[in-house]
Amino acid sequence: KNQVEQSPQSLIILEGKNCTLQCNYTVSPFSNLRWYKQDTGRGPVSLTIMTFSENTKSNGRYTATLDADTKQSSLHITASQLSDSASYICVVSALPPDYKLSFGAGTTVTVRA
Amino acid sequence: KAGVTQTPRYLIKTRGQQVTLSCSPISGHRSVSWYQQTPGQGLQFLFEYFSETQRNKGNFPGRFSGRQFSNSRSEMNVSTLELGDSALYLCASSLTGPNYGYTFGSGTRLTVV
Fold it and tell me: Is the CB of B98 less than 8 angstroms away from the CB of A100?
């Protein structure tokens, strides 16, 4: 069973609108959580990284939140642009010595004019 | 500074052949991880190398192998290719391990016909 679940699987929004993506995880012991943006056929690019003690992290129009108690994270995209069309992947790391990362299946966001 | 470089970007192979993919990490990074990404399975961990030693391995058959050189460059080899091996293969480099700061390359798109 995947330790990182993302929802929704995909969504379509109009340019200029906001949207929120969800990530629930069961990875333990928790080290950090990252959100990545991946354009089609390209490698993932890091948007934010949060550790246990961080609740919110922003990167331009992207704002990630983390609730370590409920093991939930969200990524909010404000005033979406056509270039935001991509897959957004939630990645959770466990504390060493486990060096494996747990990946969500991703949420595909399509922004339409 | 230069990012993670993967070569080649695209590859077409025939079933039964073997293939070698290359990954040059960010200068100074000693950890290289490999991942397979397919539309149905998302990102799947293949293996991680650190200082020329395989430190972690995912659940892939023995046809998938890798190695790391003294300059931290890494290669991944797939023998006896199957149609299901068609995927985007990504590598990520890190200073000490994927739990800490890591950067993905743009990937190699392998198509098996």
Answer: yes
The string of DSSP codes covering chain B is: ----EEE-SEEEE-TT--EEEEEEPPTT--EEEEEEEETTTEEEEEEEEETTEEEEE-S--TTEEEEE-TTS-EEEEE-S--GGG-EEEEEEEESS-TTS-EEE---EEEEE-
Q: Do A96 and B55 count as a contact with CB atoms less than 8 A apart? A: no
Per-residue pLDDT tens for B41-87? 788 999 999 999 998 899 999 999 999 999 999 999 999 999 999 99
Residue A73: what are its φ and ψ, rounded to 5°? -135, 155
Question: What residues of B are in contact with residue A42 (Cβ under 8 Å)?
Answer: 106-107
Q: Yes or no: say if A35 and A89 are a contact pair by the CB < 8 Å rule.
A: yes
| pLDDT value for A99 | 64
Counting every residue written for chain A, the total comes to 113
Closest Cα in chain A, distance from residue B106 (Å):
4
Contact B99 A99 (CB under 8 A): yes
Chain B neighbors of A46, CB-CB under 8 A: 103
Pairing of strands A107-112, A10-14: parallel
Given pLDDT bands bounded at 50, 70 and 90, which one contains residue B39?
A: confident
